[in-house]
Amino acid sequence: MAKRGIRPVLERLAPGVRAIQWGAFDHAIRLGHASIGSEHVLLALAGADHPAAAVLRAHGVTPERVEEQVTRRAGGGMFTDLDRTALAAVGIDVDAVCARMTESFGPEALSRAGRASVRDHRSAWWNPRRQYVGPGAQRNGVFLPSRPGVIQCLHHAHVAEQSRHDSQISVGHFALGILSVTDGLAPVILAELSDVPLSALRSALMDTR
Amino acid sequence: MESSTEIAEAASSTDPDVGLRAVAALRVLAERLEILQVDNARRLGWSWQDIAARLGVTKQTVHRKHGKRAGEGR
Fold it and tell me: What pTM was computed for the model?
């Protein structure tokens, strides 16, 4: 991974966390999306075999429901990396645009456009010379860039680990981390699916070990 | 937790941070929709010239941006 500050963090990931990160990559590939976002991390986390993941599932954040949210909102990857808050401020409801486009053209057409737009030079994580210069994951010759939400989750998990003076970043820290992410679809999906406010979800996760 | 619309309404609509990010996001959205719409038009047999006219750009611009992907041709 590219960021300088991330390196020491990566060396302290529990095996379960690594599995979730690869799970996120696999979900993005399977869904035909052009980048890994916080929504894919949430999907992998929701299905993980760990008490923290069980807490999420107990509050309505299940793999099936997360996947339904992702496929409905992602528009085949076209709409996953838009700044929804900024667009909402000018009255654009990205979900409404996505729903209309899906209805008019079907998910396949949106997937194609999503893959074509990954090299859109206006995307935040491509520089003007159309070269990708950020983090991502690669397996079997396929590389997917990671959007900021993926790194944010890692960062917040690290913060959670530090504040609890633990020696390793566990799935529990990672679950706390995803709750603090602001990029990608995870925040809106969590708000939609959780049967309690996120602060209560955070408390429930803090009580879990 | 608040929805993104509620957060957006709470934020000052005169805050340049929000406003400028909104402009950038609109540009990205417009580029995405352009890809989708141009592909659809080409699939329906529209010429580059007709597509360019609707987009308010030259035929050369549309062909350069979308030619390789949406198929060569007139």
Answer: 0.78
- What is the percent of chain B where pLDDT is above 70? 77
Enumerate residues 35 to 64 of chain B having a beta carbon within 8 A of any beta carbon in chain A: 35-36, 39-40
Minimum CA–CA partner of A189 in chain B: B3
Compute φ and ψ for A125, nearest 5 degrees.
Answer: -100, 15
pLDDT reported for residue B3: 52
pLDDT above 60 for A127: no
| Residues A179 and A190: beta-carbon distance below 8 Å | yes
Q: What angle do CA A200, A206, A208 make, to 5 degrees?
A: 110
Hey, are the CB atoms on A83 and B8 less than 8 Å from each other? Answer: no
Q: Which residue of A has its CA nearest to B41?
A: A105
List Cβ neighbours of B16 (8 Å cut-off, separation of 6 or more): none
Looking at this protein, which amino acid is placed at residue A119?
R
Contacts of A89 in chain B (CB under 8 A): 8-9, 11, 13, 18-19, 22
Indicate yes or no: CB of A112 within 8 angstroms of CB of B8: no
**Tell me: domain A4-206, CATH 1.10.10.10, correct?**
no
CB pairs under 8 A between A and B: 86
pLDDT confidence tier of residue B73, bands split at 50, 70 and 90:
low
Query: Where are chain B's structural domains?
Result: 4-70
Average pLDDT over residues A178-201: 94
Q: If we measure between CA atoms, which residue out of A114, A104, A206 comes closest to residue A163? A: A206
Please name the member of A90, A105, A191 whose beta carbon is closest to the beta carbon of B22.
A90
* CB distance A97 to B23 below 8 Å: no
Pick from B25, B36, B69: which is nearest to A82 by CB? B25
Q: Which residue has the tokens 């838009």?
A: A82
Domain ranges across chain A? 4-206
